[in-house]
Amino acid sequence: MTRWQPLPATLPREARHLVEQLRALKGRTGLSLAGLARRSAYSKSSWQRYLSGDRLPPRSAAQVLCRLAGGDQARLLALWELAEQAWPQGASEPAADAAADAAADMAAEPTGATRSAGATGAAGATGAAEAAAASTGQRRWRIAALAASALAALLAAGLLWALPRRADGPASARAGDAVSRPCRSTRS
User: Fold this and answer.
1) pLDDT band at 28 (very low <50, low <70, confident <90, very high)
2) Whole-number Å distance between alpha carbons of 142 and 160
3) How many CA atoms lie within 13 A of 76 on its CB side?
4) How confident is the model over 74-99, as a mean pLDDT?
5) 108: buried, middle or exposed (CB in 10 Å: 19+, 13-18, 0-12)?
6) Mean pLDDT over each residue of the chain, to the nearest integer
7) DSSP designation for 164
8) For residue range 99-127, what is the model confidence (pLDDT) as tens digits?
9) 25 falls in which pLDDT band (50, 70, 90)?
10) Rounded to an integer, what distance in angstroms lies between the CA atom of residue 22 and that of residue 37?
11) At 45, phi and psi to the nearest 5?
């Protein structure tokens, strides 16, 4: 049995209750965090964050743990809904962390024997949420790339405008004529 560290004092009562229930379900499975990671689509470090109260677990992670432990999913999902509303804003995963976790979780893909159709549907729902978070990051990158491209185009146009004109061009010939006429008149 794992000895857990105390939950953060700043964790709301609803969130604390959810994490305690998840810890009890994890204990009922008899799996280590590594074993839990092998049997689910979530990495060992993700489970550590979820069970320590550092991060709100995704709904599908709670469902997978409940299914592995043989718990009451309706009750756990009701707890999850309450915890989601009360979870501190600073403790929820930022988009960058979610993208990194998604990549790590994809590497920890379970075998076909342990994945059920219910887990696949739940992972799809989580994938949609992660895709929405990733699209926000992608939107920021697109805006930054567009701004950089516009700046590069303006710099190129400015350099082309500021460069001296070639001597064999018609505009420079006219300018050369204007300069050479006064020079000829001063010598004669």
Assistant:
1) very high
2) 27
3) 25
4) 72
5) middle
6) 73
7) P
8) 445 444 444 444 444 444 444 444 444 55
9) very high
10) 14
11) -65, -35
- pLDDT category of residue 81 using cuts at 50, 70 and 90: very high
Question: How many Cα neighbours within 13 Å face the side chain of 31?
Answer: 20
Q: Which runs of consecutive H residues, i.e. helices, occur in the chain? A: 13-29, 33-39, 44-52, 59-69, 73-86, 95-107, 117-162, 170-187
What are the φ and ψ backbone dihedral angles of 157, each rounded to 5 degrees? -65, -40
> In whole angstroms, what is the distance from residue 130 CA to residue 58 CA?
10
The percentage of residues in the chain with a pLDDT greater than 70, rounded to a whole number, is 60
Give 8's DSSP letter: P
Backbone dihedral angles phi then psi of residue 172, each to the nearest 5 degrees: -75, -30
Please, which residues have CB within 8 angstroms of residue 76's CB and are 6 or more apart in sequence? 18, 21, 25, 62, 63, 66
Question: For residues 58 and 144, which has the higher predicted lDDT (pLDDT)?
Answer: 58
DSSP result, 85-134: HHS-GGGSPPHHHHHHHHHHHHHTPPPTTT--HHHHHHHHHHHHHHHHHH
Q: Distance between CA atoms of 40 and 140, rounded to whole angstroms?
A: 31
In terms of Cα–Cα distance, which of 61, 59, 100 is closest to 81? 59
Place of tokens 């109260």: 53
Cα distances from 104 to residues 37, 38, 43, in angstroms, run 11, 12, 6
